């Protein structure tokens, strides 16, 4: 197995943690909206929408209820990535610490982890592609949730590649003294 499986599991755990944090954050993007008297700072995550008058300390946050279809797709892709990377973590743990049939476990964990990373990246790309049109010509700033999802997706893909590299060859697996 070597170090590739352990480093793959660490990357996979990192991806899971980042995905949980980024999914929960109400800060994926922000823009400024002008009213007749005030400037409003509007920020949103996947589940919460916050607005406040410019330079106020407290924001008025509420749940997003009227959700456009693309937003549902982003939520679904990120949540699928979250659940899939959790499964990859379980398989990676089993492959390293529990089972002797490492070749199939690592291959499966690798493919699943890469799939999770692709889901997360696709959700983030759909999000950025559509939110540019939401600000009505105002400048959109992408906040912590968006880049965390990108890093989580890349970490999931790297973990998958490491899991696939960690699977033992046929000769190595059959000649291992632990398997006899």
From TrEMBL:
<keyword id="KW-0965">Cell junction</keyword>
<dbReference type="InterPro" id="IPR006187">
    <property type="entry name" value="Claudin"/>
</dbReference>
<protein>
    <recommendedName>
        <fullName>Claudin</fullName>
    </recommendedName>
</protein>
<dbReference type="GO" id="GO:0005886">
    <property type="term" value="C:plasma membrane"/>
</dbReference>
<comment type="similarity">
    <text>Belongs to the claudin family.</text>
</comment>
<dbReference type="GO" id="GO:0005923">
    <property type="term" value="C:bicellular tight junction"/>
</dbReference>
<feature type="transmembrane region" description="Helical">
    <location>
        <begin position="105"/>
        <end position="127"/>
    </location>
</feature>
<dbReference type="Pfam" id="PF00822">
    <property type="entry name" value="PMP22_Claudin"/>
</dbReference>
<dbReference type="InterPro" id="IPR004031">
    <property type="entry name" value="PMP22/EMP/MP20/Claudin"/>
</dbReference>
<keyword id="KW-0812">Transmembrane</keyword>
<feature type="transmembrane region" description="Helical">
    <location>
        <begin position="76"/>
        <end position="98"/>
    </location>
</feature>
<feature type="transmembrane region" description="Helical">
    <location>
        <begin position="139"/>
        <end position="166"/>
    </location>
</feature>
<keyword id="KW-0796">Tight junction</keyword>
<feature type="transmembrane region" description="Helical">
    <location>
        <begin position="7"/>
        <end position="29"/>
    </location>
</feature>
<keyword id="KW-1133">Transmembrane helix</keyword>
<keyword id="KW-1003">Cell membrane</keyword>
<keyword id="KW-0472">Membrane</keyword>
